[in-house]
Amino acid sequence: MKRSLLWRGLLILAVVGIAAFSAYPLDEKVRLGLDLRGGIHLVLAVETADALRAETDKDSELLLQQLRAVNVDGPTVAGADATSFVLRALPADGEAALRRVVRDFLPGWRYERAGNEVRFERTADSVQQIEDQTVRQAQQTIDNRINAYGVAEPVITRQGMGSNRIVVQLPGVDDPERVKELIQDTAFLEFRLVAYPQNGGAALDQTEILQNYGGSLPENVELFAQDLRDDLDNVTGQVWYALEKRRVITGRDLKDARPGMGEFNDPVVNFSLTPEGGRLFADATGANVGRSLAIVLDGRVQSAPRINSRISDSGVIQGSFTLEEVEDLSMVLRSGALPASIVYLEERTVGPSLGADSIRQGLRAGWIGSVAVVLFILLVYKLTGFNAVAVLALNVALLFGGLAYFGATLTLPGIAGIVLTVGMAVDANVLVFERIREELRLGRTVKSAISSGFEKAMSSILDSNITTLIAALFLFNFGTGPIRGFAVTLSIGILSTLFTAVFVSRFLFDLQLSRRERVETMSI
């Protein structure tokens, strides 16, 4: 055997060995997608406006702090929303100081002055950056929570570039309600100063708070409720607080959270803060000793303890929690509190029986299509068709080996990608075989016809496969769920097709020709 044939054969054996090792056992190594295994499919929308409001509150408070640090006293902030706020009562001689503070500490803002008021507006680039960071953090947080609960092989992806939607697919979930409850536990945590009642306690109804403010709430105040519970943890009523709109800190400032016991032996959550969160918390608590600070979780007040002293880098979340609730809340906050609340846009449950039926139908389609292709090859290309059949079988084996090696998930559209790969592999062989036929009709020898056939078909094979690969990469980048499953399978199939239809097929021809000194005819 020629040395070149030996090395090519060893390379093919090595690739086949790696593929077989990666894919064995097939039922354990190749993961099945949601449509084949059953499970739940969710589409979530991240309310990025929550994160924008929180960042705006932080920046407006930072602006006031830095102005006070350079002896510009008196300005206040009003009319704040998600992307803007108004600075009032700025002294005439404070313009230069304001310009320096904005330049050094608020690079994502632009402002314009109108009389005694200065209106701040967040730049479009800054808004996009915060929204993108919020969605990515929410995606990572959901991933951490699901992995902490041991859900196997989850698929958690962003639905398109720049979108605020997250797709969650959990194949093979035995208890979908438990997982949905885990994701729905948004744990959007906020700490806000209590505006009323100032002397501790809570208002029994909203009317009391409105009367205190003359019938309407100020612009910087919002109403929040707190549930009252009995010894059996049943809700028996609710009380009300008027809280400042400005958030002292949010869940984004948490570094860690652990379950613990309070001073009355009740379950609590002990938390610690990031350095930046600790600085903000220390400034706010130090300046408001004697006031109440409300702990708001998912829009409900959990507790409103009195600030007795300056608190820097740690604290306690108290409320009417059971021991199990404290453990779950600690885990959720520890894995990452969501930077914003989420809304459920779509929820779909796929039963295991439907998935099993999809597998049967998909395999049936694959087998029927493959058998039809094999019969066609043997009918048209006679004995030479066995070369294509061998290459085709190896191509499918390498495809499954690639799926297992890269940890890809096989979906129902992925099975369609396999069938399409079979068709494209046959197409590559057809191009080569037809070129060989042409060369034989021109009177060339068998060896010369085979060599010329591969050379002349190469450009067409590369063109068709590479352009399809480019389309598959775009599908993977911009698609979600089943679309990406199809794109992954098709991409791996194209690469295996190029290897088998060009390299392996030529090797098999050369191997057959090397066994005979002179070849007069060819069954093609």
Overall description:
The chain is an alpha+beta fold and 524 residues long. It has 15 helices and 18 strands. The protein has helices at 3-23, 26-29, 34-37, 48-69, 95-105, 124-148, 176-184, 206-212, 275-287, 323-334, 352-381, 385-405, 412-441, 446-478, 482-514, and strands spanning 31-32, 39-46, 76-78, 84-88, 109-114, 117-122, 155-158, 165-171, 189-196, 221-229, 235-250, 254-261, 267-273, 293-297, 300-303, 314-317, 342-350, 409-410. It has a five-stranded antiparallel beta sheet with strand order 10-11-9-14-15. Strands 7-8-2-17 form a four-stranded antiparallel beta sheet. Helix 13 (412-441) packs parallel to helix 15 (482-514). The chain is elongated, with a radius of gyration of 33 Å.
Category from helices, strands and their pairing:
alpha+beta
- Note the overall shape: elongated
Largest sheet report: 5 strands, antiparallel
Radius of gyration: 33 Å
Strand order of the largest sheet: 10-11-9-14-15
Strand content: 15-25%
The quaternary structure here is: single chain
Percentage of residues assigned to helices: 40-55%
